[in-house]
Design goal:
This protein has 428 residues and is an alpha/beta fold. It has 15 helices and 14 strands. The protein folds into two domains: 165 residues, Rossmann fold, CATH 3.40.50; 162 residues, Rossmann fold, CATH 3.40.50.720. The strands form three sheets. A seven-stranded mixed beta sheet has the order 11-8-7-6-12-13-14. Helix 1 packs across helix 14, helix 6 crosses helix 12 and helix 13 packs across helix 14. The longest helix is centred in the last third of the chain and has 26 residues.
Length: 428
């Protein structure tokens, strides 16, 4: 990850402030993370050797409440990336009007190279290193790239051991049996799906005529695909880290999810019961998938997939960002010139943190909600903020990403100005 990823993230903040017109000191506060921690995580390997891993946690801003954000395990995790992701979380929480600030963390590791026992020891050791910096009223981690509910369960358990009492609210995205929330597992994909359903109303779409390509077929990509397929949308292309498949007639999504979760590969199949048959499809690379002629493109993999180099070749009419930062800053004006509507990550993938907030609320109250209540609350929240962002789009005649940042930083500005800025103290 280049060192400029945080600088790029901040440039969107400055661009949005041309419309939000907040005092400079508010913007200056948002340009710098509040706390940055770098730790060394020791791990005793199964063969008896000791390995050391870099771990990070960045708390970007806690003006609206305790900080909240995922932990990722990835070989490319570095401090610039984590700072950018923490900044995005601050904006995302403000955009969904949650009483949280943003944080992010991770370990520079390829989890696929670790045994399950090594993965557990690494996760527990990481919490041992950062336990003084997290807590239900301070900073609440969650799953992210290559981490999952089991890892969150280990982490919550380790924190509880250190503190000597059960603390489910310290971590969200946990297994249901350890205090997780119903509806959390599909929340990110479902939130994006709710955004698409609002676009459907605005554009009078007939789902069966709308083609969709999805880059990245992990948790969020699968759930978005599944919900869209069930509504009749034609999902014509899917890829994972190994490559992708394309068929203009569309795929049977439940069959592909079944095979992906069994074999860890995206394969073009149709299943009837437990019998799966291969169906016709073209092989496409991740790069080729982005340039397909489709109505909706959903980047659900990693950052910087659409850049100045390939933005001109993008043919989709709408892009729904499920991944964090899949479009580089330099690509924004190119897509804008092509009249491509981008529903930005801080709105489109905010379902995850919204239901994480619901999980935190349930943990603290000791009262757990049925799944349909979680879905209903999430749909209301996503719909409300979708139209609040649309209001900014119309009022300032700006694109959806800028509008989302305008709304987010206005809310952050209100919290900071409530403490007083220069204008207040100097009687301005």
């Amino acid at each position: 990850m280049h060192n400029d990823v945080f600088t790029n993230a901040i440039s969107r903040l400055e661009h949005a402030n041309q419309y939000a017109k907040l005092p400079h000191e508010v913007i200056d506060r948002l340009k710098r993370p509040r706390t940055t921690i770098e730790v060394t995580v020791p791990l005793r390997m199964d063969d008896g050797s000791l390995k050391l891993f870099h771990g990070y946690r960045v708390r970007h801003n806690d003006m609206r409440g305790p900080t909240k954000g995922g932990l990722r395990y990835h070989p490319q995790v570095d401090i610039a990336e984590v700072k950018a992701l923490a900044f995005w979380m601050t904006c995302k929480c403000a955009l969904l009007n949650l009483p949280f600030g943003g944080a992010k963390g991770g370990i520079q590791v390829n989890p696929k190279e670790l045994s399950r026992l090594e993965l557990e020891r690494l996760s527990r050791n990481f919490i041992g290193e950062i336990a003084d910096f997290i807590g239900p009223d301070l900073d609440i981690p969650a799953p992210d790239v290559y981490t999952n509910e089991r890892i969150m369960g280990w982490m919550m358990d380790e924190y509880s051991k250190i503190k000597r009492f059960k603390t489910p609210a310290v971590i969200t995205g946990k297994p249901i049996s350890l205090g997780g929330s119903l509806g959390r597992n599909d929340a990110t994909g479902r939130g994006a799906y709710y955004c698409i359903k609002e676009l459907e109303k605005l554009n009078h779409w007939h789902p069966e005529k709308i083609t969709v390509a999805i880059q990245g077929f992990g948790n969020a990509g699968q759930h978005a695909a599944s919900l869209l397929h069930a509504d009749g949308y034609k999902v014509v292309a899917i890829s994972d880290s190994r490559g992708g498949i394309y068929n203009p007639q569309g795929f049977d999504i439940p069959s592909i999810i079944h095979i992906k979760n069994e074999t860890k590969q995206v394969q073009a199949v149709y299943c009837s019961g437990s019998v799966c048959e291969t169906v016709a499809a073209d092989q496409v690379s991740n790069a080729e998938l982005l340039e397909l002629e489709v109505d909706i493109l959903i980047p659900a993999a990693l950052e910087n997939q659409i850049t100045a180099d390939n933005a001109q070749q993008i043919k989709a009419k709408h892009i729904i960002e499920i991944a964090n930062g899949p479009i580089a800053v330099e690509a924004d004006p190119i897509l804008l010139d092509k009249n491509i509507i981008v529903i930005p990550d801080i709105l489109a993938n905010a379902g995850g943190v919204t239901v994480s907030y619901y999980e935190w609320v349930q943990n603290r109250s000791g009262y757990y909600w049925p799944e349909d209540e979680v879905h209903s609350k999430l749909q209301q929240a996503m719909r409300r903020e979708f139209y609040n962002v649309q209001h900014e789009v119309k009022e300032h005649n700006i694109d959806w990403r800028t509008a989302a940042y305008v709304l987010a930083i206005k809310r952050l500005g209100e919290a900071m100005q409530a403490h007083g800025t220069r204008e207040y103290f100097m009687g301005g």
